[in-house]
Amino acid sequence: MTELINVTEPDKLTDQPEDQDKLTEQLEEQEYIINMGPQHPSTHGVLRLVLSLKGEIVKNIQPHCGYIHRGIEKMCERLTYQQIIHLTDRLDYLSAHHNNEAVCLCVEKALEVEVPERVKYIRTIIDELGRLASHQLWWCSFGMDLGALTAFFYGLRDREKILDIFEETTGSRLLQSYNCPGGLMNDIHPNFQKRVKEFITYFRKKLPEYDELLTGNVILMERTKGVGFLSLEDAISYGVTGPSGRASGFACDVRKHHPYSAYDKAEFKEILYTTGDTFHRYKARIDEMWESMKILEQLIDNIPEGDYSAKMKPVLRLPEGEYYQRVESCRGEFGVYIISDGNKTPYRIKFRSPNFSNLSALNIIARNFKIADLIAIGGSLDLVIPDIDR
Predict the structure, then answer these.
(1) Three-state secondary structure of 176-211
(2) Domain assignments of the chain as residue spans, ordered by start
(3) CA-CA distance, 365 to 377, in Å (whole number)?
(4) pTM of the entire structure?
(5) CB 309 within 8 A of CB 182
(6) What are the start-end ranges of the E strands in the chain?
(7) Chain segment 305-332, per-residue pLDDT in tens
(8) Across the strands, what pairs with 334?
(9) How far is CA 168 from CA 137, 189, 196, 252, 320, in A?
(10) Which pLDDT score, from 0 to 100, does residue 7 have?
(11) Pair 246, 253: CB distance under 8 Å
(12) Helix axes 117-145, 96-111, angle to 10 degrees
């Protein structure tokens, strides 16, 4: 870090050219330390960034986490496997269903339970509806961060339709807790398939508006193209997954490389770019929304008949051992690692948070760009802070 230099007081300066040159040199070398946060004016979460600046140029970023740390992993050690589900909602609350599913899959793997095909299809459909809802909220917030307030209204307008579907089937709009070990809490609502198909028809006409309003906007392109580079090597090194990693060419889509639930029944593309800048992190999420709709179209009319849950014991005890399960959440690879000693509660549980890994790369992405660029770069990572703090 550059050493801070005391600048000569103005009233002690002379008009001599050498004094003016000395002052200019001192000002150019001076380093400013400022705080960004911990308040969150744009609803991204409570995060503090300590920025080292040289003028308007970012030279170093030191994130300070933990403002909403709740010790969820430690709390899980005192809860049964059924109870743990309700805590994972509160990690990345925009990937609540994905987090629930990861715990259920890990428990089912340990118990060697095969869930009904109907469950696999329904889980996958709600996964993709959740991904669409998350990407819509990211898009409208990203636009608002850059001054496009209209985008905020468009994105929330479309997201409400998905939340209505969730509420009707799961009873909750945001934190569903719809998954449980062995299956689902209850079967889908009789209107579920009809409403999902209506939404797909509706959103296929609305998604092009996102490109018309924001993607092709000259201000957005000026502020995102060529800004905030993340190389493929750095993406792999820092474990940056999800759309943020795939925009740098990192093929890391768990749905493709380690299929779970009904993802092996659907055809879809893994969205990959090689540029690795802020614009292509934006573009990756827009393209993923098209792929999510493609998955929904293939599965919604083919949900098998049958039970919505396997037969499970009221008290679950995992065999002694270590178990790991990964899923593709809205922001990347979410992992659940369980150590069991044979009791009804885990001996140890650890969550692999995609947001924590993605945040760790912010310093190398934003370094040597302007502080105004940091707003766009941070928005393009789509961070959800409770998933970082846990």
Answers:
(1) CCCEECCEECCCCCCCHHHHHHHHHHHHHHHHHHHH
(2) 10-64, 72-385
(3) 8
(4) 0.88
(5) yes
(6) 32-36, 48-54, 57-64, 179-180, 183-184, 321-329, 332-340, 348-352
(7) 999 999 998 899 999 999 999 999 999 9
(8) 327
(9) 20, 7, 12, 33, 39
(10) 40
(11) yes
(12) 150
Q: Which residue has the tokens 């310093």?
A: 363
- Which residue in this structure is represented by tokens 């792999």? 236
CATH superfamily label, 72-385: Cytochrome-c3 Hydrogenase, chain B (1.10.645.10)
CB-side neighbour CA atoms (13 Å) of 203: 28
Alpha carbon distance 195, 234 (integer Å): 42
Judge whether 359 and 381 are in contact, CB under 8 Å: yes
Per this entry, what is the length of the chain? 390
Distance set, CA 24 to CA 30, 53, 163 (Å): 10, 17, 57
Residue 335 tokens, joined: 């992992």
Q: In the predicted model, what is the mean pLDDT of residues 337-345?
A: 93
Checking 110-115 for CB contacts under 8 A at 24+ apart, the result is: 110/318, 110/319, 110/321, 110/323, 110/338, 110/340, 111/181, 111/316, 111/318, 111/319, 113/181, 113/182, 113/310, 113/312, 114/310, 115/182, 115/183, 115/309, 115/310
Tokens linked to 87: 């805590």
**What's the pLDDT at 5?**
40
C-alpha to C-alpha distance for 340 and 274, rounded to whole angstroms? 41
The owner of tokens 């040159």 is: 21
Can you state the angle between helices 117-145 and 278-299, rounded to 10 degrees? 150
CA distance 161 to 367: 39
